[in-house]
Amino acid sequence: MLLKQQSCSLLALLFVLPVAVEAIFNATITTTDEYPFGAIICSLISDRADRPVATNYVPDYNGSALLDQAFGVAGPDAIDPVCHATCSGSLVAPGVVLTAGHCFSGLSDFFFEGDPMRDEYLTNLTSSFRVVLGSNKGGKHLASEGFGVKSIVVEENFELERGSAMSNLALVFLDSCVSDFEPIRLLRGDDEQEEEGDSSSSSGGGGADLPNTLEVVGFGDSEHFCVTQEHGIETNEEDLMQVMPYERANCEVNPLCDGLYGNRCEEDMVLCLKAEDETTCTGDGGAPIFGYSKSERSPVQIGVLGTGVIINNGGSYTAGTLEYTDLAIASVLSSHTEWLESHLSNDTCLNSTGTAVSDLFVASDDLAL
After folding, report:
1. Rg (Cα) of the chain, in Å, rounded?
2. pLDDT digits (tens, 9 = 90+) for 40-63
3. Residue 307: which of 239, 235, 257 has the closest Cα?
């Protein structure tokens, strides 16, 4: 059995695995009519989120000459730069999108707290991203299609070098409120679970009782290189929004949990997932992992997709006989309820929509198993 180590994290590939795997390949095409909370995190400066953000960055303009500085020569109305999809995410409040910490973390650690260069870096980082809602495809978008980013909060305990596993969360605060799309609600953790942790590694981790079958919806690459590592001319095709099921898997046999950097799957912090002949790929990092509520049968987000590997079980892609297994890990939201509540309460759009922070969550006993 050949193990092809392919990371479904954009930044984890620098530290853990050699090939990126983060959008959905061989899954079911869907639309934002079905999943209105689906979000695309896109960058004005690159098609990869792990490249440095220069203080005078040059965005990729749509059919126009490059300018010396973003909007430095022509105003935003005169030219519309291209925004490259880098991660997936989910609208979780009227003014906030939840995604993976690895989409933004790593480079800012080169700067010390209080260093004026760090503040300048972070300012340019937020201004170089957009969040696109209501689109049914990944790839390139015009900057004008997206919401601007006011601030980014990465979970303080996230450690990129540990392989995009525990606490791989980030909240993206938008520069205006969203009224056209319904946020997905988040699974609230039990107080006992948050304080003590709940061991569930043999059944796939995640702490509290969770469904055995979950779903992920994301944007990004859906070409054969997601499983073959063979890049071709179709690499730059637009990739449609797709949804696929994940089964909870045993963390003890997941190669991502016991690797070069030691244990990356603390039982109450990480959800281990498995799919056969379907896989997430480049662009799905930060995608929502969700189940459904009992009372309304509405989606409930349980985790955020981090990273994964592909196990080649034999066969040939060209012959149509390739068989493979996708093993992935996701950060569990129920272990971060306090962190989520404290930061989501800063969403100024809550007041304008009459939404309470508690309205953003679903109790664990209302989760359909």
Report:
1. 19
2. 999 887 654 444 444 444 555 554
3. 257
